[in-house]
Design goal:
Order of helices and strands: EHEEHEHEEEHEHEEHHEHEHHH
CATH architecture of the largest domain: 3-Layer(aba) Sandwich
Shape: elongated
Strand content: 15-25%
Helix content: 25-40%
Structural class: alpha/beta
C-alpha cells in the first residue's frame, strides 16, 4: 500500500494531539508524512490520511499540496479529532479542480454526530494519550486542574475553585488564563503549563469537567482522562459528565461530586480511589485503538 499522512504543522511537536495521531498512523502503517512543503510528495497514493490540524497556521504552499494529494488519492480519509473538526478548504477546492465527488472521503472521528455515511467510522483518537507509568508519591496535596477557563465550563470551575475552599487547589494555565481564573478564584495556587506529563502525577487528585456542548454532543472522554489515568492520578467528576462516560462504556458514578464538600471527602479517600480507578480502567486502551483503526483500513482496502 502506497500511502501518506498529511498534517498542516510540524509533527515533531508530539505534545500536540493531532501531531501525535499523525506520527502514530505513519509509524504503524508504514506511511510517508507531509508536514512541510515538499513538491516531491505530491503524487498519486492508494491512501491519503489528512489529520485535522491547524491549517490556518500552515504555509500556503503546503495547504495546496495537501489539497492536491488528498484529491488525487484513491482513498482519502479525514481523521477528525474533537478539537478541530473542519477540513482545510484547499482539499475541497482540489476535489473540484479534479472534478471528483467531494463525498468520496471517509471520516474517522471522535465525534459521533460527524459519522454520517456508511464508510465513516467512529475512532476514539484520545485513547492514543494513554501511556501508563508507575504511580509517583504524592508531593502536591489538594485538587488539581489544568487547562483553560473555557466559556462552556466556567460555572463548573467556579463551583469547585471559587470562594472559600476546604482544600488546597492548584490550576496550571497560561498567563492570560490565570487572569480569567482569578476573576472567580483569586486565592488558589497557580502555575505555568507543565512541560512533562509526569508533572501531573505529583498531585493528589484531579478535577474532570467538560463543556456544556459535550453534554449534548458526544465527543469521547477527553485526553485529560487518559492522561490522569496513565499517571495514576485519581479523578473526581462533576455530575454533568456522567452521560459522556456511560456512552463510552465506563461508569464514573462512584466518583461524582456536586459540591466542595464532595471534593473534600474524595481527597480524604484519594489513595483508595486511585487504586479502584486503576483496577476498573487500567486496561490496554491502545490495543482497542489499534483494533479499531486496523478494521477501518481493512474495510477501505478490501
Amino acid at each position: 500500500m502506497k500511502g501518506i499522512v498529511c498534517h498542516f504543522t510540524p509533527t515533531d511537536k508530539v505534545h500536540v494531539a493531532s501531531a501525535r495521531i499523525a506520527v502514530w498512523l505513519a509509524n504503524r502503517y508504514g506511511l510517508d508524512i507531509i508536514d512541510k512543503p515538499d513538491p516531491e510528495k505530491v503524487k498519486d497514493y492508494d491512501l491519503a490520511i489528512c489529520v485535522s490540524s491547524a491549517s490556518g497556521f500552515a504555509d500556503a504552499e503546503l495547504r495546496e499540496q495537501i489539497g492536491e494529494i488528498c484529491a488525487r488519492a484513491k482513498h482519502y480519509i479525514f481523521a477528525q479529532q474533537d478539537f478541530l473538526t473542519s477540513q482545510a478548504g484547499q482539499i475541497g477546492k482540489w476535489f473540484d479542480i479534479l472534478e471528483k465527488d467531494r463525498h468520496t472521503r471517509h471520516v474517522w472521528s471522535t465525534i459521533h454526530k460527524t459519522i454520517k455515511n456508511p464508510q465513516d467510522r467512529y475512532i476514539n483518537w484520545n485513547r492514543l494519550t494513554f501511556s501508563p507509568v508507575e504511580p509517583q508519591p504524592v508531593s502536591k496535596t489538594g485538587l488539581y486542574y489544568y487547562g483553560a477557563a473555557r466559556k462552556g465550563r466556567l460555572s463548573y470551575l467556579e463551583k469547585y475553585l471559587g470562594g472559600d475552599l476546604p482544600y488546597e487547589a492548584t490550576v496550571s494555565t497560561t498567563k492570560p488564563g490565570t487572569k480569567k481564573f482569578k476573576l472567580f478564584a483569586p486565592d488558589i495556587n497557580y502555575e505555568e503549563p507543565f512541560k512533562e506529563l509526569s508533572h501531573i502525577g505529583k498531585f493528589q487528585m484531579s478535577l474532570y469537567l467538560e463543556d456544556d456542548y459535550s453534554h449534548r454532543h458526544y465527543c469521547s472522554p477527553a485526553n485529560r482522562w487518559y492522561e490522569c489515568l496513565s499517571q495514576r492520578v485519581p479523578m473526581v467528576f462533576d455530575k454533568s459528565c456522567i452521560g459522556t462516560f456511560e456512552t463510552a462504556g465506563y461508569s464514573v458514578k462512584d466518583y461524582v461530586v456536586q459540591d466542595k464538600e464532595g471534593v473534600a471527602w474524595a481527597l480524604e479517600n484519594s489513595e483508595d480511589i486511585r487504586e479502584e480507578q486503576w483496577e476498573r480502567w487500567g486496561f490496554d486502551h491502545l490495543l482497542a485503538l489499534k483494533e479499531d483503526v486496523d478494521a477501518a483500513i481493512k474495510g477501505i482496502l478490501t
